[in-house]
Amino acid sequence: MSEQRDYRDTVFLPQTDFPMKAGLPAKEPGIAARWEAEGLYRRLRESRKGRETFIFHDGPPYANGDMHIGHALNHVLKDMVCRTQNLLGKDAPYVPGWDCHGLPIEWKVEEQYRKDKKQKPVLSGAHRDEAAVFAFREECRAYAQHWVNVQREQLKRLGIMADWDNPYLTMQKESEAIIVAELMKLAEAGNLYRGSKPVMWSPVEETALAEAEVEYEDITSTQIDVAFEIVDSPIPELVGAHAVIWTTTPWTIPVNQAIAYGPEVEYSAFRLFVTISGSSTEFPEDQIANLQKTKFIVATELLSDFTDRLANELTKRWYGIGGNTVKLTVVEPTRKPFVGSDLAGTIARHPIYNLLLSRQPGLDPGQGSSSSGTAPEESGAPDQVRGDAGDDRAAWQRALEFYARPRPFLPGDFVTTDSGTGLVHMAPDHGEDDFALCKANGIEPVFAVQANGTYRDDWGWLGGNDERRRSVINKPFNAPEGPICSDLREAGALLAASEDYQHSYPHSWRSKAKVIFRATAQWFVPMDKPLDVVPAKAGTAVGQGADLQAIPASAGMTLRESAMQAIADTRFVPEKGRNRLASMVAGRPDWVLSRQRAWGVPITLFVRPDGSYLQDAAVNARIVAAIREHGMDAWSEANKAAFLGQDHDPTEFEMVTDILDVWFDSGSTHAFVLDSGRWPDLAWPADLYLEGSDQHRGWFQSSLLESCATRGRAPFRTLLTHGFTMDAKGKKMSKSLGNTIDPLKVMETYGADIIRLWALSVDFTEDHRIGDEILKGVADQYRKLRNTFRYLLGALDGFDHAGEAVEFAAMPELERYMLGELARLDGTLRQAIADFDFNEYTRALIDFCNEDLSAFFFDIRKDRLYCDDPAGTERRAYRTVLDTLFQALIRYAAPVLVFTAEEVWTTRFPDRGSVHLQELHPLPGEWRDEALAARFAALRALRAAVTETIEPLRRDKTVRSSLEAEVAVPAAQVPQGFDDVMLAELFITASVTRHDGETVTAQRTSEDKCGRCWRLLPDVSEDGALCGRCESVVGAAEVAA
Length: 1041
What we know:
- A hairpin with a 6-residue loop joins β33 (1008-1009) and β34.
- It is elongated and about 125 Å long.
- By secondary structure, the protein is an alpha/beta fold.
- α15 (559-569) packs antiparallel against α16 (576-587) and α27 runs antiparallel to α28 (873-893).
């Protein structure tokens, strides 16, 4: 064999400066800085001006703390929405915003007060210090602005393209003014009322909470069974019996006012027989005798549950752990079971009455005796009202008066036999059912529990001077050995108490502390009152055009009905969100608007002594104008007379000092963002709201209710929700568990484009996962996409479309097929954009690049790129298709990999501006050739079988690559129109023959290898010599040189 020449310098290898290694953490900040310097967002808006609009409204994140991974996913999705709509050529502005008012910011400022040892001023209520409130608000404002600035830079770093120079903030004066204007619409229409009813209340935060501010956690509580002695009944044999109630909130017993029964529930009156087993010979005979002569009443279905609890309690109380065991047997009742409705007219006495009656002033808690039915002369008041003898006696008498009141038995349809005893004690201060049933029977709340969760100073049991007083959510306060259970036990009324009941209980979303139902005076929007939708009269307007002014009022519909209709008219992505929101609205109570805090928009109402409020459009307009100029601090006593004007006497009105629920703030954002004219690119209503699934009870619902109450329809056409981000094992992220993922650190390690690719690759409509291994997998997918663009850049080096492009009709079939597949991808991506299915969008793009291009088209045609004559039609056709692919793929990838797409684009076109100003163009219909696509689909299936057949030869080192294999394929499986030479080229083998069998076979070829293209062909005379094609190309090049 003669010595062969090295032909490497004659091969047309791709040439590019685009690096294989991304280095995103170092590059991305510079690209972002260039965008900001060039005003990219403004240029995009200018380029889309006058186009069809797509209005997205950004749900405001809270201005408190660094961005977390949930924020990152949320904003990437929002950015993807707007970028893809812009990519379609629409005008899709993105105005970001922040929710700036509310309790968490107050807490942070108060925390600093404590660090600085500053006295917290009185910030709410009638005795608040206005000057101190205004100063406190300024500190809250500064704190919120700090975090707005921090989060804004973090979101820019993530590649979010938005109007960062002009965001909306709920604490801006213009925003606060329109929030007040929206409130005034409700007031002017009479769609507000003030009432005292139980609302969710946080004793830690000392304020009412909306449903959206409450989350449920699994806890273990104390469960108790308490005996209420019946003192009167239409059923004579029940007098002297003890109705047993069961509760997991012992702290509500001090404010019990009635007992509810189920009208259709069957009850039994019975006695118990005590049996004791074990080695001990000691028996509490007196206690056994008292128990056995006592008659109890519980629901028949729950009788065994009750006796089990009581037996466990007696075993523990009498013998402790490991001693004798108490067993209780129901003695045949003296009266047959009866239904609850028979209890109508029955009256019980509160079990603590006799204990309070027996206590004398000055005695320590626990002293005294409950055995005496009457108190001796000058026996004293409850221990917590000690003081002067006269004061003590008056307070004691008040306490006795409340606990001596009859506790009527009332019918309650809500009473079930799911658990407990089938009898429910009623505390109208602390339960919705309790309140409604008691109010219907003339029993009003007594407002015993204060804002901080303690009983008020003058309350008759566990009030002011009782050193045992604690907040009602204090766990030891409610424990079996706590003061409530101890007093009930001393009174002989506590039958059983155990700290072992597991259930779900509401907690404050922000403080994580337990919440309670507490009856307080609050401002409400009624859900079931027929409403007239009143256009804005207080300094704002319903929309900017006549079409919006013509929105019909939902006259005669209730807010609930209007909201339910709006839900039916809204598109939900995913669809399951419809039922979730509808079920919440269908069963929700009236909307509580008021909060007893300082950092928020005031409820700007003037109230008369009788509780009614002023409805005067002129007054409201003056208030709105003042707040627009001076902010919410304009709501001040100093401006009272000016607001009221000459038509009203300031002495006849009180200014409300409560602030609005922050969900009303965020629920009004549609009014001051879409409908105010501050952002001329926007319009009302929005095409899309997008937030996490928890916002069905939050922003989605508050926006829906606010807009339906003021405009008669929803402020959105579509709601898109995403799930929660979990750790790699599917667990909820928690700092205490150490399983959180910090997006800022991920960007430092991998880059923002990796977070974006992860966020758009997961099924975000469900809960989804992230972790180190998941991120490594995403980084590997990114590397493949980057290499696709690197190949395209190298292969297109020097490409001149004007001088090199080949018309579609003149291209080889493979090139025409690939353009058809590109058109198919284009249709898939456009549909994914319409469906907001960004998981499908990203998956389809990745699969096309990996499977259709890298593993198929590029693999087959690299020989043509490297070795064909540059002037030949076939090579030019390939490069023409590569150029088309580049132009399409870089646009498809731009919303996903915003930094990488810019790097790729500017590498090839350094003088053509940003890729993010580009838009998609329609692809020619002639590219979609279904017959050609079917032929190539069959060919690709056969190609896969050929590859699978060759693989064992590669593993055995019989061949080093498929080029060394000659294969035989079933003739029946070869699509029409492909000859054997074409098949060898498409399969990347030495040769292909056909046979009449059913399987593919392969063996090593005996042909020699071309020294330039490395193909093993019959026309190569010896290893290292040139094939005919390469000889022609090299010869022509040498002649030209």
